[in-house]
TrEMBL record:
This is Membrane protein insertase YidC. One of its GO terms (molecular function) is membrane insertase activity. The gene is yidC. Keywords: Cell membrane, Chaperone, Membrane, Protein transport, Transmembrane, Transmembrane helix, Transport. Residues 323-344 have a biased composition (Basic residues). GO terms for cellular component: plasma membrane.
Length: 344
């Protein structure tokens, strides 16, 4: 793992080293709260970098909610043809500028960071000469640091002999570890709840995802409590800081996107108000180009109707009147003259 994550392990340990230097100067290098604050600000540093992808993720989610009814129609239309349904959904997402993988980016980027931090913290053990960026003095400082008697590098279920080697016991570990687990669990629940609440419209597009989100809203907090017994106190601090940051970030970004959508809605309302409306009894003004094309179409239709000879009725000769009677020829000048001579 060390060789695979080395390109992340060194930056993570460097950020932790930097913040420990900052807070260690004020509180003392071996102070447990200096190390705890260093872990907190390690989280804050990484999450600041991920704000932009998180904002893009939330915007993509709102876009998905807008055309959720279209996705539902595609699911019903192509329910027996999954390949065609996938093609049509991909086309729809492309038209609306939505990348479904973009929403997973912030979570995916945090996984290697979490694993790297866990590996760095596990390498703080007695006798170690260095730990990536940290030298022997840094390793000894972390090992000696504690919060109310609980060592940052140890975990609750660790064997009692190992806890004694670090100068702590299980009771001290539980006094500090259990409250951290509970606070992290509560923060996780409210974060998931806020996320599910904002995905109400999007649930129309994918009911399975909505059901899974509601399921995770209860499973994730339980997972935080169960796994907390097997994680070092420093990792619990990381988890707590990360969940609290996520909760605050979710609230802040939600307000920001709501304000953006409200501005867009106001612009649409103003654009509708700016459009001139016809007075009572006045015909609406149509587009000149559309009106011209409509008139040309009507003229062409009328010309075609006049040019086309009408079919004779049943029993009627061509050129005759209905009923088979011949049409009377018009009076000619020659016939009129002969009739005038006879009268004389």
């Amino acid at each position: 793992m060390e060789s695979f994550f080395s390109f992340i392990l060194y930056p993570v340990s460097a950020i932790l080293w930097f913040w420990h230097k900052v807070f260690g100067t004020v509180l003392g290098p071996d102070n447990g709260f200096a190390w705890a604050l260093a872990v907190f600000f390690l989280v804050f540093t990484l999450r600041v970098v991920l704000i932009k992808p998180a904002l893009s993720q939330m915007r993509a989610g709102r876009k998905m909610a807008k055309f959720a009814p279209h996705i539902q129609k595609l699911r019903e239309k192509y329910k027996n043809d999954r390949q065609r349904m996938a093609q049509e959904m991909q086309k729809l997402q492309s038209e609306h500028g939505v990348n479904p993988l973009g929403g997973c980016l912030p979570a995916l980027l945090q996984i290697p960071v979490f694993l790297s931090l866990f590996h760095v913290l596990r390498n703080f053990h007695p006798g170690a000469q260095s730990n990536f960026i940290f030298d022997k003095a840094g390793v000894d400082s972390f090992i000696q640091a504690d919060i109310f008697g609980a060592k940052l590098s140890n975990w609750i279920t660790q064997p009692a002999t190992e806890l004694a080697l670090f100068g702590t016991d299980r009771t001290s570990m539980m006094i500090v570890g259990i409250p951290l687990m509970l606070i992290a669990s509560v923060a996780t629940y409210f974060t998931m709840r806020l996320s599910v609440k904002k995905q109400t419209d999007a649930s129309m597009a994918n009911p399975q995802s909505a059901m899974m989100a509601k399921f995770m809203m209860y499973i994730a907090p339980i997972g935080a409590i169960v796994s907390g017994w097997f994680l070092p106190i420093a990792v619990l601090l990381y988890w707590l800081a990360n969940n609290v940051w996520t909760l605050g970030q979710q609230h802040f970004l939600t307000k920001k996107i709501d304000a953006e959508q409200e501005r867009e809605r106001q612009k649409e309302i103003e654009a509708k108000k700016a459009t001139p409306r016809p007075k009572p009894g006045q015909k609406p003004v149509r587009d000149a180009k559309a009106e011209t094309s409509s008139e040309e179409g009507e003229a062409a239709t009328a010309t075609a109707t006049e040019a086309k000879p009408s079919k004779p009725a049943p029993g009627q000769r061509p050129g005759g009147k209905p009923g088979g009677k011949k049409s009377q020829p018009k009076n000619r000048p020659g016939k009129q003259a002969s009739r005038a001579k006879k009268r004389r």
